[in-house]
Amino acid sequence: MATVSAPARPGTRAAGPTRRVPTWWRDAAGLLAWGSMLVVVALWVRGGGLQDLTGGTGAALTTSGRLTGLVAADLMLVQVALMARVPFVERSYGQDELARRHRLVGFTSFWLLVAHIVLTVLGYATSARTGAWATAWDMVRTYPGMLLAAAGTALTVLVVVTSVRAARRRSRYESWHLVHLYGYLGAFLVVPHMVWTGRDFLTAPLASAYWWTAWALVALAVLVFRVALPLWRTGRHRVVVERVVWEGPGVFSLHLRGHGLSRLPAAAGQYFVWRFAGPGRTRGHPLSLSAAPHGDRLRVTAKVAGDGTAQMARLRPGTPVAFEGPYGRLTEAARTRPGVVLLGCGIGITPMRALLEGLAYEPGRATLIYRARSEADLVLREEIRDIAARRGAAVVELPGRRVPDRASWLPDWAARWDDAAALLRLVPDVADRDVYLCGPDRWMDAARTAALRAGVPAEQIHRERFSM
């Protein structure tokens, strides 16, 4: 294994944000989500839900449908709130975990919505002694708001079908993201039937007050953190492209400058969602900083992987840039130990390079492991070696194709090594360090498994991924 070790040089320590994320933020976010569902169930009980369970088959089915519908509606709000970029939630969980929870909550909400529809229709059909299909058609045709709810349900089904992993992998990100946005419209179309026909809104002022408050707070969070704050920061900092620099085969860096960027709460390891003036200006590009923030300048590095990144590579100096962020918890704030191990693969090296520069660590307490397909793909190589030499860090370069017959973070020429044993050989005290990961999903999964098997506690492993 090719290892480049830098000599320790005392006194070389990067200054950077060291504020830790308070542990109670995460607990508070979880309590709000679970608490909202408990409130919904309690309001259902207060509205006679338990008594209805003993009121005959039709009443039991209908009240069960009412409960599943209410919980599904509440989970839709939780799902939107998870991706609303509320700072204390985003910094507590990070994009990687939020995306997983967003997906889990979304599918759970969908199946509860299906149960709501089936149970409610069966309940009404049983009580009226009519057929289920005739009852469903009559409800859609005559009940206030039901036609809109049916349209909203259809949009929700479309979003769920396209979010199944097999379908997601076959879709372009831009197409999938556009369809995914219809989920918000679907949730909005479901609201009128709750207000116009829902028992809670018609007979229970307390329940009505809860739902209006919940909807207002979630809508406010989206408007403030996904719309107003990005617009304000874009207008305030007036970021433009300064220059485009090619770093290697198909890989380029965008150097950006703006006004007062030093006042942004940005840290090494974080990412922004960038939008560039010109063709495709509405398309957001989530790109990590590839250098620690410095004054009024930022830098991101990308690989040409489609039309969007190809257009970015052709941007001219002076092109205006809109942005959202900074986002992500792959920063100093996640630290639990004095030592760090940074593992980057492919273009995932970009936040690792920024962390190598921006994290606070003593000489000899940082190791960067760099996986790439070939020597030519080791972009930012000289920068990384220079930072390591200045700060007393070690760099391990592992070029080579992936191991063909197993999920591994190692290159093919090291296939004889066990993944965990190889990590321990490179960093014998890895269990006493924080481990940061960035790269393709399967590679990160393999690296995380190796770290766990090498004795690294799960809470010391930090990663960020942009896929859902």
TrEMBL record:
PROSITE patterns given in the database record: FAD_FR
GO MF assignments: 2 iron, 2 sulfur cluster binding; flavin adenine dinucleotide binding; metal ion binding; oxidoreductase activity
Transmembrane segments: 28-47, 67-84, 104-125, 145-167, 179-197, 209-229
Coiled coil residues, start to end: none
Annotated Gene Ontology cellular component terms: membrane
Domain of life: Bacteria
Compartments where found: Membrane
Residue span, FAD-binding FR-type domain: 234-333
Cited Pfam families: Ferric_reduct, NAD_binding_1
SUPFAM superfamilies named among the record's database cross-references: Ferredoxin reductase-like, C-terminal NADP-linked domain (SSF52343), Riboflavin synthase domain-like (SSF63380)
Keywords assigned: 2Fe-2S, FAD, Flavoprotein, Iron, Iron-sulfur, Membrane, Metal-binding, Oxidoreductase, Transmembrane, Transmembrane helix
Cofactor or coenzyme needed: FAD
Topology of the protein relative to the lipid bilayer: Multi-pass membrane protein
Main location: membrane
Protein name: Oxidoreductase
Organism taxonomic ancestry: Bacteria, Bacillati, Actinomycetota, Actinomycetes, Micrococcales
